[in-house]
Write a structure and sequence with these properties.
Chain A: Belongs to the SleB family. The complex is a heterodimer. Chain A has 12 helices and 5 strands. Chain A is mainly alpha-helical. Chain B folds into 4 domains: 160 residues; 72 residues, Roll (Nuclear Transport Factor 2, Chain: A), CATH 3.10.450; 78 residues, Nuclear Transport Factor 2, Chain: A (Roll); 61 residues. In chain B, helix 1 packs antiparallel against helix 2, helix 1 runs antiparallel to helix 4 and helix 3 packs parallel to helix 6. Classes of the chains: A mainly alpha, B alpha+beta.
Chain lengths: 271, 427
Amino acid sequence: MRLVSILFALILGISIIAIPQNDANAFSDQQITRGAYGDDVIELQARLQYLGFYKSKIDGKFGYNTYWALRNFQENYGLPVDGIAGAKTKKALTGNSDYDEKWVKAQLNAGNQFTYYGGQPLDQQVKKNTSGGSSNSSGSSNNNGTQTQVPPKYTERDLQLMANAVYGEARGEPYEGQVAVAAVILNRLESPDFPNTISGIIFQPLAFTAVADGQIWLEPNERAKEAVIDAMNGWDPSENALYYFNPKTATSKWIWSRPQIKQIGEHIFCS
Amino acid sequence: MKTWLVVLTIAVIGLGAYSIDLHGDKEDLQRTVLAQYTDKLTDASEKLSHLQRSVSQSLLFQDEQAIHNELDSVWRLSSEVRSSIANIPIGQELSSEWMNYLGRLGDEAKRTAKTGDYEAWREKMPQVSTNLQSLSDEWTAATVDFYKHDGKMDVWLQQVDNKNPNSQFDTVKDTLKGYGEKDFPLTLSESDWQKKIELKALQDAVITEKEALEKVKYLFPVIKDATFTVTKSSDTAPYPFYHIQFHQGIRLGYVDLTEKGGHLLSYLVERPVDEAKLSQEEIMKKAQEYVKKLGMKDVAYVESRENHQAWHVTFARVHPGDNALIYADGVQLKVAKDTGELLGANAMEYIQEENIKKQTAKPIDWKTFFQDDIQVQEVKNIYTDNGQFEQRLCYEVIALRDGNTQETFRIVIDAENHNVLKVEYLT
């Protein structure tokens, strides 16, 4: 009886060791498709690249490039071609590719340029970031190195600049007031009376106090970034305002002549 | 005593040297900034003259290619002057008037080149050319003192500070305003668009503050026990609305409802969001339920984006006649990743409701429309703005170029005249 137990334990031990490493790093059980972001997408992109289907940057954002790669994989492996990474697709992917999560995440966090093609030594697929900072230093990445998703007409740089402006101008304001400040910048972008880039609007001389007093260079917090993301996705608590001012500190007479819309916190928003 | 005197003397000398050094650095910086401002000012003034000449030269030709060259110059120069003006500290009001006038001139040139309506251009531009000449002269007179700042920033800033009225700047500003209204009056479409965003079409009965609160509690039951603060929009707001701020436990936020009819403008909650627990599929299902609960039953899903706390999901109204999506009548929802709670809803565009004119879709042979290496993956009928405040029936094409890297494009093509309205690079 004792011998049988030892034999059983031995077989169990061997079978645990024999499980391929790629299964240890398998996906979560959630199905993902276009619009998704995060760890599952990083793994999906890495595995698709390992097999040669995904040729773009591994960034954790399930966009069109990931979508086409996934469809091609599904077509090649006899799966239903729907661009959705469901249970069957994930199983086929994990069964046919390796995923070194630690290595991939390390590259993302270091801000390195890298690829993850199968059959090529990993150290030959990295171009190290020589700037010394991690990808997080851009301020728009999260702790897994994944960048924030913004609507296609905006860029990561826009998000970063606007978050700096919102934090510098309105960090003491309620969240709604921060979204409103971001919305004013975006309303100016649509208006013929202002420069036609976000950078041009923010750095227009005398336009924002935070630029003049240097507070725009403070590191924005997550709340300011979230406020900008909401504004970029359409929220405008200012109700189409083009200007705002603090009535306690405003020195310009002209700003008082603008038609006022509403007050949020310390700021009066006007058109 | 002697030792203290020596230490004090050294300290005073040290501080003096430091302050001289600091002052020198500040002056260096001021000179650098002033040089840039002066450069931009000179650039704007010179290009303004070139722009006036280009407008005038555009009236010389009947030959299409020759007119096109001048129209290109007008468009380019107006954009360059605009950019230079945007970088000079001349005060917001004057800057905005300049931006508007130059932008409209550039747009008119671009539109003429595209439509080939040279007659309208020839009719309008002689007056614009004269006005530009006069503006250029007034601008030169108003800015001549800017070159007399003796390298001192405060002298420059005193001249542009709107607390100290600058009569010459005021003249330029008034002239610009007058010329702008005469040379580039609002088109019918622009005027309609203005009315639309100011919600002029809303004809519902006015609701009371109490009714507004009831509506909020009905639409968003999660905050029905919150503490509310209701304020009315300012009297000068383009449309009257209730601004309702609330606080309930961990939730802080606001709802804006129109006074006429109590239509939802927007809703936003701030609360801590825990780790994601719901799948993409579950979130989308919840989003579909939320739009229905908010009373928007004529919308269809457009797109969604996940970020670390929430999903942003976009819907658009479906045209009842041809089922094309009307992107201008969009609704955006923000759904929490932890519980699937509705964290935000934005219906400002949805309640503006576009008035769509009947249009016909003429088919396009994609094989001849695109290059051989382009694969058309998806084609959808949509209504979108053509850049002239008109809603046009369009084909929205998702196309793929499969080379060394795969590149995806979103191309919006007017379904009637086949003009390409937009090309976006998708990743």
